[in-house]
User: Fold this.
Amino acid sequence: MKEESPTILLVDDDRSFREFLTLFLKKEGYQVLSAGDGLEALKILETEAPDLILLDLRMPHLGGLDFLGRIRKKGLEIPVIVITAYASLDSAVRAKKEGAFDYLPKPFKLEELRQKLKAALKRRPAPEPPPEEFMGIVGRSPAMRRIFTLLPKVAQAESNVLITGESGTGKELVAQAIHQLSPRREKPFVVVNCGGIPSSLLESELFGYKAGAFTGATRDKPGLFALADGGTIFLDEIGDLPAELQVKLLRVVENKSFTPLGSTREIRVDVRIISATNKDLEEEVRAGRFREDLYFRLNVLSLHLPPLRERREDIPLLVQHFLHKYARKLGREEVGISPYALKALMEYDFPGNVRELENIIERAVALETGPLILPESLTLRSGGSSRTELKAELPPGGLDLEAYLAEIEKDLLRQALERTGGRREEAARLLGLTPRSLRYRLQKYGLA
Assistant:
C-alpha cells in the first residue's frame, strides 16, 4: 500500500504568504492544512493530525508562542518550525523553550525551508503499526485508519457531532465509540431512531410528558433527553425528523432545556448530541426539508463513513472478524473461507454495506456444515453487481414463469422494507426503482 504523503499545518495571518507557501508545499508533495491564527489552528487539531506545523509568531487572537504552549499542554508531540518576519535572538530562544524544533526568519530561501522540513520530519517518532480494530470497528483502509485517529480527538471535545454515511456503514458503532472514549463514558448512552418512531409519538418520546397530557397518559414519563442527562444522546436518521420537531430540537441544542408535554416547567439537561444520517443534509437544507440553523448546530464536528465498496481492502479482515464472531456464537469450531468464496465477496458491491456482509457471513456459518465457506454458501443479491452468476433450474415438468417471478419480486420487496426499517425511499434505492414504481408494486402485491 502506498504511504500517504506527510501533512503540514501552515499557521500564518498573512493570507498571500499562506497561499504562496501552500502552492510550494503541494508541489513538494505535501498535503497542506491552513489557518489564519492560533485559535483556528487549535480548532483544526481537534479533528486532524498533521505531521508538522509551520508557525508564525505574531498573529491576532492567539500568537505563536501561546499556541506552542497550548499544544504542548495537550501532549501533542508534533514538530514545529517557527517562521516569522520579527526575528530576534530572544524570540528564537523562547520558541525553542516552548518546544519548537527549529526557527526560520523571513525572508528565507525555499531551499532552506526544504531542508528544515526534511530534517524535522526525520525526527518524528516511528509510527506504530496502524490498528486493524479499534473500539469494535474493523478496518485497515486509509479511510478507516483516519477514523481511528480522529475518534479519540472527537470524543474529548464537547461539541456536537454529525456522522454521515450510507445505511449499514457502522454509524451507531462509531457513535458508541465516541461516547466510550469521552469523559461521559460512565453516564447513559441513549439511542433514538428518528425514522423508526411515528412522528405523532416522537415528541413525547424525546421530551416526555406529564400525567393527563393526552388520552392514556396516566402517569409522568421522562423523555429520552432526560434519561440521557449527563451522557450522550444518539439521534439516528436525523434527516427524517419532522419539521415541527426540528424547531423544538433546535431549542434543546441551543439552550440545553425543554418542556415535557403537558408541563409548564422547563427542564435543563447536560447532554452531548451525536446525530447520524444517510441523507445529504446540505441538499435537504437547500430543498427546505431541513432547517439550516439546526444543521449548523448539529454539524460542529463531522465524520463520514465510506461505503464498503469504496474500501474493499477491508473485506477480508471483516470476513475473518465475522467468521470468528459467529462460529463462537453458534458454538462451532473455527470456520474458514475458500478463495473462490472470498473472491465472490470482493467482487460484490454490498448495497447494504458492512451490515449486509455480516448477515451473509452469519447465514453462511449457520448453514455450512463443513470447515470451509464455499461460494454456494453465500447469499448474494443480483442487484449487488457481483459478477457471480445467478442460476435458476427449470423443473422437468416446467413452471408458471409469471407466478415464479412474482414470488421472487414479492420476496425482494419484503426484504428491502425489512432492511430499511420500512423507509420506502431507501427501499426504492436498494431495488433500483423510483418511489412511484415501488408504491405500485407494493399495492400490486398487497404489501402497502
